[in-house]
Design goal:
heterodimer, A: 420 residues, mainly alpha, 71% helix, B: 408 residues, 2 domains, 4-stranded antiparallel β-sheet, 14 helices, 4 strands
């Protein structure tokens, strides 16, 4: 079976006849992006190595924190794409079918993110508390009041959870890409559409649970005393924002290279823009709810987390986050005129990817630099490194796959989609 | 193309020409033609919203979003102003150390009023921009037109359009292959006024809705010799016995029952007088720390944290009696008894056990903190207060030999 596919692929490559849509749109990347892919891998690898050196080595505090910021930013794109695919099936939505394959390919990034988590997990299992205080088992001896949380941080349980998180996402990502491509091969089996929709409901529950606890494990336990029950939802908002923004940028890039030119229209961009705008508001709603309840209750074990972010230059960073992550995009993206124009939406997509990184920075860095904001070289190098490797991996994965689910029986509805 | 089903009704003037179609696609195609012909007073009718019909009709983007935006800002402004005025100006009230206008607590109301005003403006603005409510329309008299809410699609060009010419319009519509073309006469039989009954009901409801407010106003300004009216008796006078009440069912008449003599609740023995009451064996306040309490850096840190949480709001971070609550109370004026300055000589001389007693049971208008602060933490606070006192009144004899040498 696999060798058959390989043969047909080679045949297609040899004859130069890449698949097209009936409207004449090219829907296969093929070899053209190989150069960009190698370049992205190269830049990413070099930037990560540079981040290790400037950050004081792989087990140094600065590198670990910088890498965690970049990693959580990258992870949000990958799991956000998993959510995007699953939610479209859950609602049986038609508008998104033409862009769904790109999201399915972005969801494949969860496989990469599982590997990229190793630099963070290695010190944890070595009992090194460079990033997470609880990784050193003596922590619980010194902090008797934390004893009830100790079982959660037992190395075996942590490892099991990591396997469950990445296993669940890989399962979902591979299931949806696999079934969708099978549908392409069988030219539109409706039963497959129904099966994918049926799987999306339990899939969404699995996603909600794993994402919540994953964000707790990676971000919230930087400060094991602090807790916020809404934290998973807060990170989820970032996931949707970065995934939709990335989707917009990837589609625009594909169109600039001559793919999907007629298939993806300002109508599809408009809807992606609406999701981005909605989740800017959602992020604010969740972020403020988290703040207000803690501020109002005024309990020391909760307020100290905000205390770290409300004094010195961190207060300015907090104001800047509210301004750039809410007020500017809220008024900027409100108009439909902003979402239907390629140039303007591209600006907002890039803007959101940057402010979401800043949000991750705001979550992680105060843990290291208690005295004030300190933007360092490894922060940016790790970010470039993760972004480069994500781009390289996506291009590698997308090279020989149709960029549109040609077998989806409702594809024509998506191509003709119009907002009222 | 005369229509045999039209009744040779009245010599009413022409309102417009109506075309009927079987499919939404036909209506969209016809709309494009009418749009391109340059008509301005015409409309389409369909049982459901048709994607892309606004573009086919050449309808410009609505101004409704700007109306909603303006209403949203008015709603936001109302919420900010009302809460600021009531909290900070009209009725300032101290809530722990918070400022009188503590805006984070107001944000949910900002959000609610913004949404509420937006929603009202969206509904009212939509109705107004669509000229609704419209009590009557000439199309109501057309029997065929009833199917516009079922399975047919219509296009009407009004006779008052500047480009209207009956034969041209008929020809244009005929090119769009409609099922039928009909004349629509003006409606001379039904009134286009809102029915008087609805107006009366509306005015009456506005007046009735003011009645409760009239009663509130009366109750606020008038005095009366009869007692309050209790709408829900059980809520004003709970049938359950309250603490400290008389209950005639028991011999000792107490509603609160006493524990049998000699019993102690679990964890409430507190036999150590020194640790739990600050007293030594003779019953006087002890001047030392209890045996179980180890005085070290950790206890000092605990005392500092607890002092910052429970004591500093009134006594101030240095213990000089100028905490935020005190400062705000002074701006309010009135009979405020200021919190003690902990550096006064009589408090310096107070035995540690008496400080413990004050925290545990309160003194003057300071309440008891025994419910919030554990006994061990109270001792930690006392240690920190002692350190604060020393910081404000240390003598040369407290210094080490080396330090003293440095001073010379």
């Amino acid at each position: 079976m696999a060798s058959d596919q390989k043969k047909t692929k080679e045949k297609a490559a040899a004859t130069g006849s890449l698949p097209k849509l009936p409207n004449g749109d090219s829907i296969r990347l093929g070899k053209e992006a190989d150069g960009l892919r190698n370049g992205a891998f190269g830049v990413g690898a070099v930037a990560l190595v540079a981040a290790v050196f400037t950050g004081g080595g792989p087990f140094a505090k600065q590198f670990q924190h910088s890498y965690l910021i970049a990693y959580m930013w990258g992870l949000s794109i990958a799991v956000g794409a998993v959510w995007f695919v699953a939610i479209q099936h859950l609602f049986g939505s038609r508008w998104s079918i033409v862009i769904r394959r790109v999201a399915e390919l972005l969801a494949q990034l969860v496989l990469l993110m599982a590997v990229l988590a190793l630099p963070l997990l290695a010190p944890v299992f070595m009992g090194n508390d460079v990033l997470y205080p609880w990784a050193d088992h003596h922590y619980f001896h010194h902090h008797a009041y934390m004893a009830s949380k100790a079982p959660w941080f037992a190395p075996g349980f942590v490892a099991a959870r990591m396997v469950i998180y990445f296993g669940s996402w890989a399962l979902l990502a591979n299931y949806y890409l696999g079934q969708s491509r099978r549908q392409d091969a069988t030219t539109g089996d409706v039963a497959l559409t129904k099966r994918m929709q049926g799987a999306s409901a339990p899939g969404m529950i699995l996603f909600a649970i794993t994402l919540t606890f994953c964000s707790i494990d990676f971000l919230m336990t930087l400060d094991p005393v602090w807790f916020s029950t809404i934290f998973g939802v807060y990170y989820f908002a970032t996931c949707v924002l970065t995934a939709c923004s990335t989707l917009v940028l990837v589609l625009m890039w594909l169109q600039s290279r001559g793919h999907l030119k007629l298939s993806v229209t300002s109508e599809h961009y408009h809807d992606l823009g609406k999701l981005m705008f909605a989740f800017i508001c959602f992020w604010t709603y969740i972020g403020f709810s988290q703040f207000m309840l803690i501020w109002y209750a005024n309990i020391p074990e909760e307020t100290h987390w905000f205390n770290d972010r409300f004094f010195g230059s961190w207060l300015n960073a907090t104001y800047l986050l509210s301004l750039t992550h809410f007020i500017i995009p809220f008024f900027g993206m409100m108009s439909r005129w902003m979402k239907r124009n390629t140039g303007r939406l591209r600006f907002w997509a890039i803007y959101i990817l940057v402010v979401c990184w800043f949000d991750m920075y705001w979550l992680v860095a105060p843990n290291l630099h208690k005295d004030g904001v300190a933007l360092t070289a490894p922060d940016f190098l790790a970010w470039i490194g993760i972004a480069g490797i994500l781009i390289g991996f996506s291009l590698l994965r997308a090279r020989d796959v149709n960029l549109v689910p040609t077998g989806d029986p409702r594809l024509s509805r998506s191509l003709a989609f119009e907002n009222i | 193309m005369s229509d045999p089903t039209t009744s040779p009704q009245e010599a009413a003037p022409l309102h417009g020409i109506l075309a009927e179609y079987d499919t939404p696609t036909a209506l969209v195609v016809a709309s494009r033609k009418v749009r391109d012909a340059g008509f301005s007073r015409w409309d389409t009718y369909a049982p459901f919203p048709i994607h892309g019909i606004d573009k086919a009709m050449g309808i410009k983007m609505t101004v409704l979003p700007w109306i909603v935006m303006a209403a949203a800002l008015v709603g936001l402004g109302t919420a900010v102003w009302l809460q600021w005025w009531t909290n900070a100006i009209d009725y300032p009230w101290i809530v722990s150390g918070k400022p009188f206008w503590s805006w984070p607590a107001n944000v949910p109301i900002w959000f609610e009023l913004t949404v509420l005003f937006s929603a009202f403006a969206a509904l009212a603005g939509m109705l107004a921009l669509n000229n609704l409510p419209l009590p009557s329309h000439p199309l109501d008299l057309k029997e065929r037109f009833a199917r516009a809410s079922d399975d047919k699609f219509f296009l009407l060009i009004q006779a008052n359009d500047p480009k209207f010419d009956e034969s041209d319009v008929r020809q244009l519509l005929a090119e769009t292959t409609p099922v039928i073309i009909e004349e629509v006469p003006e409606d001379r039989t039904t009134s286009d006024k809102i029915p008087p009954v609805l107006v009366y009901v509306g005015v009456l409801s506005v007046f009735l809705s003011l009645v409760p407010f009239a009663f509130f106003a009366k109750a606020r300004s008038a005095t009366t010799e009869t007692g309050r009216f209790h709408l829900v008796w059980d809520m004003d006078f709970s049938p359950a016995y309250k603490a400290q009440e008389v209950n005639p069912l028991f011999e000792d008449q107490r509603a609160m029952r006493q524990a049998p003599a000699g019993t102690v609740a679990v964890g409430q023995l507190q036999a150590d007088d020194h640790l739990y009451r600050g007293k030594n064996k003779s019953g006087a306040f002890s001047t030392a720390m209890p045996k179980g309490i180890v005085v070290d850096e950790e206890l000092m840190a605990l005392g500092k944290a607890q002092f910052g949480i429970y004591c500093a709001p009134c006594h101030g971070l240095t213990g000089d009696g100028t905490g935020m609550v005190h400062k705000r109370a002074e701006t309010l004026g009135g009979g405020w008894v200021p919190p003690s300055n902990l550096h006064q000589e009589y408090i310096r001389q107070m035995p540690a056990g008496q400080l413990f007693d004050v925290i545990t049971n309160g003194v003057r208008n300071m309440p008891s903190y025994s419910a919030q602060i554990e006994p061990e933490e109270r001792w930690a606070i006392i240690l920190y207060v002692r350190a604060l006192q020393k910081s404000q009144g240390a003598s040369v004899s407290d210094l080490t030999e080396a330090d003293r040498a440095q001073l010379k």
